[in-house]
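Hi support team,

I've been running sequence recovery on a batch of backbones for a student project. Most finish fine, but this one hangs at about 90% for roughly twenty minutes before it completes. I'm not sure whether the input is malformed or the queue is just slow. I've pasted the structure tokens below so you can try to reproduce it. Let me know if you need the job ID as well.

Thanks,
M.K.
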């Protein structure tokens, strides 16, 4: 299994990039160090010029892979959701009990992230911090509708749809499966943010994780 996973490639919509960063050592360095730099200084302060200095390459070389830092953020967020999706598929495949299947799906999208050694150039723990803090900047734009039409958010939407399908297995007549599914995914990011920055307005903490909260919330709604 480890050998099989070592050959796994996370697929990101090709319209997001000009040249696939996974196709070269420079591209992988761009991804690796953009994650670290965005975490260090924030997306608003991040520039290709600063990234170029960090990796010892010309700013123009980065533009051969991405036309803007917005597209780079779209790449990072798409990669993250695809990585979460592959875990969800892998870890729920053999579960036959529908309650357990949904519970595992909730765990996967809400749990604290651990680094995956399958992808040496990506620190998933740091990337998760970027998703929590910066993900909304990838879609809160004037261009969101056009980018949605072009498929930039297809992986995120596919992940939410998978959770929606698990919800319907538990309660086929539930009226709001997509709303609940998207609330679990987005709400998890928000709760992790609150735990880090606004502890007084969340009950989630080391003892009561977002996973426990969203499992209780979901099954309370579905089983009433």
């Amino acid at each position: 299994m480890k050998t099989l996973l070592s050959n796994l490639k996370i697929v990101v919509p090709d319209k997001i990039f000009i040249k696939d960063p996974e196709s070269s050592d420079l591209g992988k360095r761009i991804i690796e160090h953009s994650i670290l730099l965005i975490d260090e200084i924030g997306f608003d302060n991040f520039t290709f010029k600063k990234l170029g200095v960090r990796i010892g390459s010309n700013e123009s070389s980065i533009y051969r892979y991405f036309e803007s830092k917005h597209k780079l953020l779209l790449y990072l967020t798409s990669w993250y959701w695809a990585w979460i999706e592959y875990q969800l598929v892998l870890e729920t495949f053999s579960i036959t009990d529908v309650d357990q299947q949904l519970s595992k799906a909730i765990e996967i999208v809400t749990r604290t992230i651990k680094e995956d050694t399958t992808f040496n150039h990506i620190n998933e723990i740091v990337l998760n911090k970027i998703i929590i803090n910066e993900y909304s900047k990838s879609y809160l734009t004037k261009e969101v509708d056009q980018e949605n039409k072009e498929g930039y958010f297809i992986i995120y939407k596919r992940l939410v749809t998978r959770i929606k399908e698990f919800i319907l297995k538990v309660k086929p007549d539930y009226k709001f499966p997509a709303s609940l599914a998207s609330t679990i995914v987005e709400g998890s990011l928000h709760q992790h943010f609150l735990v880090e920055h606004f502890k007084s307005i969340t009950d989630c903490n080391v003892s009561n994780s977002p996973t426990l909260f969203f499992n209780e919330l979901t099954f309370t709604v579905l089983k009433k």
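--
Follow-up from support: It reproduced on our side and the slowdown came from queue contention, not your input. DSSP finds eleven helices and no strands in the chain. No action needed from you.
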